[in-house]
């Protein structure tokens, strides 16, 4: 099986928000308090505990603007957290739902058509490995199956 690496939002992106910077739309992040499960931090890839302050902001996990550069809402602990480091292990955030959308992207950061599929959590490693064996797929995004929000990236 292909070795998989689950990667979180880069610390530089989180630092921008923590240091008072703007999101992908040029706006300051909104602040709210978690009411429990359903607020996964994209930096540590853990759920934000009930009562903890968080930021919600527009995030674009692509290097530049282009038609396939999806932008959407994500959450980040308001208090600095450590970036997810156990990249070879599926992160805790992937236990918050029974399934997620996996979608392959090419080296040009465009969707590879026909790769998107709602995938049961237990099947994520196998399907991600299958996608990454395709020469046209450079990486995979994991997204919410209900809201299409970006969760993390998988590389092989």
Task: Give a structural overview.
With 156 residues, the chain is mostly beta strands. The chain folds into 2 domains: 10-77, 2-Layer Sandwich (first zn-finger domain of poly(adp-ribose) polymerase-1); 87-155, no CATH class. It is 11% helix and 28% strand. The chain has helices at 11-18, 124-132, and strands at residues 5-7, 30-33, 53-59, 72-77, 99-105, 117-120, 139-144, 150-155. It has a 5-stranded antiparallel sheet with strand order 1-8-7-5-6, covered by helices on one side. A 3-stranded antiparallel sheet has the order 2-3-4, with no helix packed on it. Strand 7 and strand 8 (150-155) form a beta hairpin. It is globular, with a radius of gyration of 15 Å.
How is this fold's topology laid out?
Blueprint: E1 5-7, H1 11-18, E2 30-33, E3 53-59, E4 72-77, E5 99-105, E6 117-120, H2 124-132, E7 139-144, E8 150-155
Antiparallel strand pairs: 1-8, 2-3, 3-4, 5-6, 5-7, 7-8
Pfam families: DUF1203
Protein name: DUF1203 domain-containing protein
Organism: Rhizobium metallidurans
